[in-house]
Amino acid sequence: MMLQAETVHQVGELSATGFVVASTIKILAAFSLVMVTVAMLTLLERKISAWMQDRLGPNRVGPGGLLQPAADGLKNILKEETNPAESHRIFFNLAPMLSIIPALVTFAVIPFAAPLPTQWGLVEMVIADVPVGVLFLLAFSSLGVYGIVIAGWSSSNKYALLGGLRAGAQMISYEIALGLSLLSVFFLVGNVRLTEVVTMQQELGLWFALPLAASFILFWISVFAETNRLPFDLPEAESELVTGYHTEYSSMKFSMFFIAEYAHVLTASALMATLFLGGWDIPGWAGDNIRVIGDGTVVGGEPAWWITLLTFLAFLLKTAFFILVFMVVRWTVPRFRYDQVMDLGWKIMLPVALAVVVITAGTILTLDELGVEYGLVYGLILTVVNLAMLAAFLLILDRGRVLAGTGSLTEKRREAQEKARLRRREEAMTTSTGSTAD
Amino acid sequence: MIESYLPILILLAISVVNAVVILGLTYLVSPYRPTSVKSAPYESGMPGLGGTRDRFSVKFYVVAILFIVFDVETVFLVPWAVAMRDLGWEGFAAAMIFIFILTVGLIYEWKKGALEWD
Fold it and tell me: How many C-beta atoms surround the C-beta of residue A216 within 10 A?
């Protein structure tokens, strides 16, 4: 609404039947696309790990190993399933379903392209543009923790139980920082609808990754912890817990946990692209600033099929970027220790997220007070404040240790205690030997 | 607005069917020949020691309790965040009081040692 001289385009509204047909097509297309992408992601992960470790990776099935996921799926279906004798049968079977269902539903609210004009009316390129938007996504993606905890508990295996407990504690710990870092986005957007998030980034002329840099970094770290990816893969931790919560799972049930994990990675990447990298926005071009104001009417640019296609490609590229970072990080950094994970979540992420919320809110209100128009200048001032905040936090938290381990504060305290105890013991020894000498 | 939730319901139904079909397919196709050794809980190849329905660290409960407090805080802050620019400084002050009280709580937990793991 800050745009001057907005051009209004009337495309026409979809009829009720048109809405149902369009929704069904979108759902089926998106669902198959997600399933195929998830399958390809498992291959991509193996290829990237091979590339980073100077190996070839899977290259036998199909051209360049492209059919490897299909072969894996077939093998997993045909393999025998083991059911541990002491497991709780109902929950043991329920857990993989509880894990995979939320993972495949969450992408429904993410807008993936500019609206498409058809002869039957305007079709919005999001499966469900629900008013609760991001909140729906948060609620559903955190349902996945039930699947993991129930899997760990019902397997009746000590490794699985430990993995499930760790996963539960870790995921709920980082959910707080995740939620708090989202608040800054809500400040600027004034809505939780994801289509609005894209629109407001186009109006600002800057993707939120810059003006909300501090929240972006916090959100990114929390997402790594939420998806149980390295360096936060404590729930699996193959070197200490076999494979954690899915130790007892075999055959297709194991695959379901795997599909759920990669679906989470995909959705999280798409969400980050939408929240902080402008969603389907093409940078530096005003033609795609298309905003639907209901009844098949749009303001801003004129919708066209090629704009939809281009914006979809832009969205795919941004999502692919985050997925690649996920994978490269997995094969680069080692795993945290569990107390370090909890320290980072509660003692660093939570206070920093709270401080970022307060400072960002204060800055936005001051800018509004000063009468700065919501636009590029507004965004740039916020960027400066956020970068200063990031630098300050890094300096305060690091205190000259150049990004030492997060547990090092505890470590130092423990070392000091250990030294004090040794000194006390030595003193006791000298006094006792002194007394015998007497 | 309520009809905008319809696609989510359809998608949810498809996901549930998908999960059931995957489980059903393996049930039908894969062999099932359990032996007592095969269905024993895996403990790195050693005979299992003790049960798993045992007590575990109370730390996990503490984390869960703390989570409830701070997650509710986040949920309470969302409506304020959405309307922040309209509410202005008054709303900001109210939110700051709320955050301050919870920060005091966090410091208390910290000093009590509820956040320490060893």
Answer: 23
Distance (Å, rounded) from C-alpha A210 to C-alpha A383?
5
Query: Across the 438 residues of chain A, what is the mean pLDDT of every consecutive 10-residue run?
Result: 58 77 86 90 90 87 85 85 80 88 88 80 80 86 86 84 86 89 88 84 83 89 86 76 80 86 90 88 76 73 80 90 91 83 85 90 87 81 87 73 55 79 86 56
Report the predicted TM-score, pTM, of the whole model to 2 decimal places: 0.84
Q: Would you call A410 and B38 a contact, using CB atoms and an 8 Å cutoff?
A: no
Q: From the list B8, B11, B40, which residue is nearest A85 (CB)?
A: B40
Domain B2-112, CATH among 2.90.10, 1.20.58, 1.25.10, 1.10.3430: 1.20.58
* Residues 56-95 of chain B whose Cβ lies under 8 A from any Cβ of chain A: 56-57, 59-60, 63-64, 66-67, 70-71, 73-75, 77-78, 81-86, 88-89, 92, 95
Which residue in B66, B80, B72 sits closest to A358, CA to CA? B80
Sign of the CA dihedral running B113, A341, A179, A260: negative
Chain A partners within 8 Å of B66 (Cβ): 346
